[in-house]
Design brief:
By secondary structure, the protein is an all-alpha fold. It has 2 domains: 1-48, no CATH class; 50-146. It has helices at residues 2-8, 10-21, 29-48, 50-75, 79-127, 129-146, 156-161. The chain is elongated. It starts with a helix and ends in a 17-residue tail after the last helix.
């Protein structure tokens, strides 16, 4: 995980390394938790979908830079400095917008592919409807013939029809009138 952080988020790697090098009693568990779990999630995504991981990593970098600029904006009350920071923030917001749009377009493509696959599967099932039904019916019949049962044995209705009354007896009528 530290290697992944070093490669994609050097500033996070530095913080993680500092916490990791600390004596266990002084490690910031909160910071470690806050940084580690998103990192693990990104590592898993990178393993299965590198393109999505690249988009998410880029988006996270933009978010981190925006956080820095927010702190800078509050730290510098001078209007000229704040104007520059606002311009930098605008550029980052545009970049984040583009990354989110790419991610959404990618998700739409993926959903369209899944929808097309489902349509094809439905069409194949419809074309093979009779064969599928025959196969299921034949399998059921084979299973039944392998372990023959008397018709209805085990069914509550069968038991009732054969004189075994499964219903409780009706209690006698109460006559409470004086």
């Amino acid at each position: 995980m530290l290697e992944f952080a070093r490669e994609h988020f050097p500033e996070i790697h530095e913080r993680l390394q500092e916490d990791w090098d600390d004596v266990p009693e002084t490690r910031s568990a909160w910071r470690m938790q806050r940084l580690i779990w998103p990192m693990i999630r990104l590592m898993r995504i990178a393993r299965y979908d590198p393109e999505l991981a690249d988009l998410l990593i880029a988006e996270q970098r933009v978010e981190m830079r925006l956080s820095e600029l927010q702190r800078d904006y509050l730290a510098f009350p001078v209007d000229s400095v704040r104007v520059e920071i606002k311009q930098q923030m605008r550029v980052l917001f545009e970049e984040r917008f583009g990354l989110r749009r790419q991610r959404l377009e990618r998700e739409i493509r993926s959903l369209q592919e899944r929808l097309e696959q489902a349509r094809q599967q439905l069409q194949q099932q419809e074309q093979a409807k009779e064969a599928l039904i025959d196969t299921e019916l034949n399998q059921l019949i084979e299973d039944l013939e392998r372990r023959p049962l008397r018709p209805g044995v085990g069914s509550p209705l069968y038991e009732l029809d054969n004189g075994d009354d499964l219903l409780p007896e009706r209690p006698p009528a109460r006559n409470d009138s004086p």
